[in-house]
Every structure is written in structure tokens, then in C-alpha cells.
Amino acid sequence: MSDLSAATHNHLRNVEALYTGHHGWLYARLHRKLGNALDAADLVHDTFTRILASRVAIIDEPRAYLSCVAKGILVNWCQRKALERAYLSALAQLPEPQAPSPEQRYIVLETLHEIDAMLDTLPAPVKRTFLLSQISGMKYEEIARQMGVSLISVKRYMKQAFLQCLMLVE
Is 94 within the bounds of a domain? Predict the structure, then answer.
């Protein structure tokens, strides 16, 4: 057996042992936190999927590790749900003839999730600048004053954010 296949085999065995030994515990913990069995099951699945893809060799503290991975997934999930609620709330304000079709809603939600994920890759000041400009409608000068940075910095941050948006389109 080659080194790669031995390493892969060991990783799969480790993840299987982790799953067998701690799946129920993680599910119960997430179920208590969320109050919803289906969401808890989805997040447990996502947690183990991420661990399987991570190729982490040895886990000394399995429950601490699982908690850490699950927490990151839970934070992303909560952000996604908040984004969906905000979008659906905005849709509820539209008159019926202007409301998008279910297909259009799905496309917009997926696009919003992609933009949100892209924004999470940006440094904090760049993300904040972009959101103040695009969501709050602030002028660059106002953003510079609020953030305590130069106008040149705001322009640089916006350029970086727009370039990231362009990469999302490609």
C-alpha cells in the first residue's frame, strides 16, 4: 500500500471512529441549541463532511475539536438564515405584481449567499467599507470619517471589494 493510500485509509478510520464515538453527542448538543432536529442533523453532517475533507491526522480532544468545527459551521448557518430572513422580509414589503417568482427568489438568495461568502474573505475594514457604501448608502467621505481612515484608504478598500465581486462573476 502506498504512503498516500495508507494515510487516506488511516484518516478514514480516524473519522469513522470519531463519528461512531461522538455523533450522538454532537447531534444532541446541536439539537438542544437549535431546537430543531432536522437542522441539527444537517449541521452534524456538515461538521463530519468538513472533518473528512480536512485530513487532520490526530485529534487529541475529539469533543473540543468537534465543538470548534461545529461552531464555525453554525455561525455560517446562522448568517445564512439571517440573510434569508432579511431578503424575505424585504420581499414581503413589495406589492404583489413586483414580487419575484420562486425561481427568481432562489437565484437571488443563492447570489446573496455567494456575495456574503465572498465578503467574509475580505479583511474586516474592506468588508465594513463595502457594506457602509453599498448597504447604508454612505458617501466615501462619510465612511472615512466614521472609520477614522483617509479618503484614499476608503477608495482602496472599495477597489479591493469591487475586484473581489468581479472575481465572483467570472
Answer: no
Question: Contact 31/37 with Cβ under 8 angstroms?
Answer: yes
Residues of the chain with pLDDT under 50: 1
Contact 22, 29 (CB under 8 A): no
Cα separation values, 160 from 114, 126, 166, Å: 17, 7, 10
Q: How many residues does the chain have?
A: 170
In sequence order, what are the residues at sequence separation of 6 or more whose Cβ sits closer than 8 angstroms to the Cβ of residue 122?
A: 130, 160, 161, 164
The boundaries of the domain holding residue 31 are 3-87
Task: Name the domain count of the chain.
Answer: 2
- Is residue 132 located within the same domain as residue 67? no
What are the residues whose beta carbons fall under 8 Å from the beta carbon of 21, sequence distance 6 or more?
Answer: 62
Cell triple for residue 139?
458617501
